[in-house]
Amino acid sequence: MERIFHLKENGTTVKTEILAGLTTFMTMAYIIALNPNLLTNFAVGTPLWNGVFLATCIASAIGTAVMAFLANKPFVMAPGMGLNSFFAVIAGNVAAMLNTDYTSAFQAVLCIILVEGIVFLLLSVFNIRDKIVTAIPLGVRLGIGPAIGLMLMNIGLGSNVGIYAEGNGYESPFYVMRDFFGAMTPSVIKDHMGAEYSQMVLTVVTMFIGLFVIILLAKKGIKAAVLVGMLAASVIYWAGCFIFLGTNPFASLEGASFLPPFHDMVETTLFNFDFADFFNIGWFTAISLIITFCMIDMFDTIGTLVGTASRAGMTDKEGNMPKMKEALLSDAVGTVAGACCGTSTVTTFVESASGVEAGGRTGLTSLTAAVMFLACMFIAPVAAVIPAAATSSALIYVGILMLQGLRNVDFGDLDQVVPVFLMLLAMPISGSIGHGIGIAMITYTVIKVFSGRAKEVSVLTYVISLLFIIKFFAVV
Length: 476
Prior knowledge:
The chain is mostly helical.
């Protein structure tokens, strides 16, 4: 272990790394079931759902293992949220456009992901993606971590524990901050939600108890604080289900199958590229989609790597992370593996920050998470009983810590402050790290140009800003 991961050099131990890997995995285990749900429109139990489920586990494990051994960084990968929803929308549109079934359209859109991954491999090998990282102004780079922190808090306090209730016909979720704390009085939200109000109360109580447990343990210097806090929150939620809700939180385990559906994966997703339908989409549309996927994934990944590495002290004074090329190359391999297995773009997950906060500093953290993804091919029903409220506790805590990075931003320099604060708003509201960086880049470039300091902006920064302007405003 020492020879492979250089644990002593990075000031960590095997125990700390494994705990960190488990922490990261637990905060993102939701993707195992959510990704196939989103990509198949919740067609649970169908051959396509089973294929995407296995593809999610296998592709996440492959990409994360490459990150562990090639880059020796504690970052974990899985099919990206937002990108998977975009993939599903495109697949639906392709099915309507070509008058074909959804599975065939799904296999056609997988070709786009394959091309995207190959493009990323080439950009990474020739250091182009690395140059793009350095083209991001220092002030923006310093603000990426805190912006991600706000995004994590927004997920934890907002959408992560959204509860579907009879009050709106179970069509859209109720959110903790917007609906529960946003209600004028408890009776208002209770009347509005209906029968699920008690579940919402249990969720909110669980979330904050888990958060306080994490904070108290962290103040005592316990490195496994996040993991222990999540476990404590889970126990509270399970007990509350039995005592107050009269439900069995482990009901999903009854009759659950623990055998991986490899046959369905081979039939529907594994190397099932439909190039015939892909070419029928049209060159202009196909190229536009490839560029869109590339831009979103590229800056989501760069933002996650830079922001998380900054929090862990893995960057130099210029905000650059050693072995960035290897980390980006690992991400590209993950995307290609995802396409071959049958899932949307695999990218570095922002939840990796929870493992870093638990002490993870090397690839052993990633390797631990990769092993857990493979194990979930057999124990997915067990991972599914971890309540969303428990993962929210971890996301909120990590988000709070990442906000501390704002102290490195020069608040006396408007060239830094304006782009950073727009990014702080854009990331949680848009739900996209890449879009937040794009808005910051455009703002930085405009301020420099119109304040007579255009020469201070690099050519590549101009190019990136222009591409984002086209991305945001061009009608394709």
